[in-house]
DNA sequence: CCAAAAGTGTTGCAGCTACACCCATGT
DNA sequence: ACATGGGTGTAGCTGCAACACTTTTGG
């Protein structure tokens, strides 16, 4: 049986970064590959998405097949699709993040071959494909979940502003996104304290009111 | 020319949720579809990923082709792949988020046909495919960027814990993820104040030390 | 009685909120 | 002169960080 299309299609897989804590350390579940490419290397559990299943369903199915773990909450981590990430053909993978409590470690009981093993994050083998990137994305996501500083992610919000902007424009952008009015003085203190703005020593002109100082984000 | 595979492959597209602020309101850039399915309906700009290009590159290319916008920072929003989201064949889309400042609106100048238009988020037409879902994911992401409350995303961290856990176990999980030691009293105050824990009125037993109270996350 | 982990309050400080008036420009 | 938006300080409060000892169990 074969499948033919008018245009080339990539293969699509789901890979799961599944973390647990063992002996007070973060561990990730890896599978030892039985086939080429990367035969013998360790890889994230995962596999091809089937044509009639949702992405998350596919990820859950692969996870169950390869590790015996079921009923695990999966959260999408993102798509990884560098053209050369798989030597066989173009493969785009949708990565998922999952966490399991230490008491759910029925692992080797459920999986027959048991080529699935927990690896300490501080002592990892070389991984197949670009799985190291994916794993790192999972680590970052996990770290961000418990960190409350806004700095990194809010930076893109400044993309709404032109290169040179006034504080009033910046305030307006934040107000629109947050959907609430902000106090002018407090906003100015906040933005000056939390973002590196450079005063361009320039003023707007043309409004029939006092000109405003222009800033740029450093 | 046609392309044949041993297993069925989905098509993969990139769609871009591109926001701007016009007249103090959030707007999103939509394209009016010229072809079936959903001919005439509005849709997010996007199109098929080519086999030799990275996901982000493909998104940027499609955005440029359809709207004339270039040099825009794209951030991955996630993959959307419900099996029935496209009536023609299985299509998985990788969505991207982009923001443009109001002064970059060279839009209609660059694009010939100009079937691209900014739409106010509070007055949207029906969208093609599942683009409404994707758009909403973009809105949420944008809102989260400027919100500093931890509540929603940190909830999954509790998946590291068994259903019944002690406060010491919870603290240990947070310490491992954050990579730093936390003060016991402050942690207890924080967790009680910010998470709905129910005291199970049960104690651990068996340790050669004082038994600990068990809690579960409500 | 000793070891091991559980449990418990207070104080100082930093950062946030609330709040009202004068300033510079164009018409 | 007036209309329009730009620019500025302070006081109270709240939430977070720092910090040490007593309690309960098992061996």
In the CATH scheme, what's the topology name of the largest domain in chain A?
A: Nucleoside Triphosphate Pyrophosphohydrolase
What is the assembly state of the chains in this entry?
Answer: homodimer
SSE order of chain A, as H and E? Answer: EEEEEHEEHEHHHHEE
Q: Tell the overall outline of chain A.
A: elongated
Count of β-strands of chain A: 10
Protein name (chains A, B): NUDIX domain-containing protein
Cofactor (chains A, B): Mg(2+)
InterPro entries (chains A, B): Nudix_hydrolase (IPR020476), NUDIX_hydrolase-like_dom_sf (IPR015797), NUDIX_hydrolase_CS (IPR020084), NUDIX_hydrolase_dom (IPR000086), WH-like_DNA-bd_sf (IPR036388), WH_DNA-bd_sf (IPR036390), WHD_NrtR (IPR054105)
Family (chains A, B): Belongs to the Nudix hydrolase family.
Walkthrough of the structure:
- The structure is a homodimer of 218-residue chains.
- Chain A is an alpha+beta fold and 218 residues long.
- Chain A has two domains: 11-145, Nucleoside Triphosphate Pyrophosphohydrolase; 152-217, Winged helix-like DNA-binding domain superfamily/Winged helix DNA-binding domain (Arc Repressor Mutant, subunit A, Orthogonal Bundle), CATH 1.10.10.
- Chain A has six helices and ten strands; from the N terminus they run βββββαββαβααααββ.
- In chain A, strands 2, 3, 4, 5, 6, 7 and 8 form a seven-stranded mixed sheet that branches. In chain A, strands 9-10 form a two-stranded antiparallel sheet.
- In chain A, a hairpin with a 2-residue loop joins strand 2 (11-22) and strand 3 (25-32).
- The longest helix of chain A has 15 residues, at 131-145.
- Mean pLDDT of chain A is 92; it is low at 109-113.
- The interface between A and B is large, with 68 and 69 residues.
- Chain A binds a DNA duplex (27 and 27 nucleotides) through helix 6.
- Chains A, B: This is NUDIX domain-containing protein.
- Chains A, B: InterPro entries: Nudix_hydrolase, NUDIX_hydrolase-like_dom_sf, NUDIX_hydrolase_CS, NUDIX_hydrolase_dom, WH-like_DNA-bd_sf, WH_DNA-bd_sf, WHD_NrtR.
- Chains A, B: Pfam families: NUDIX, WHD_NrtR.
- Chains A, B: Its cofactor is Mg(2+).
- Chains A, B: Belongs to the Nudix hydrolase family.
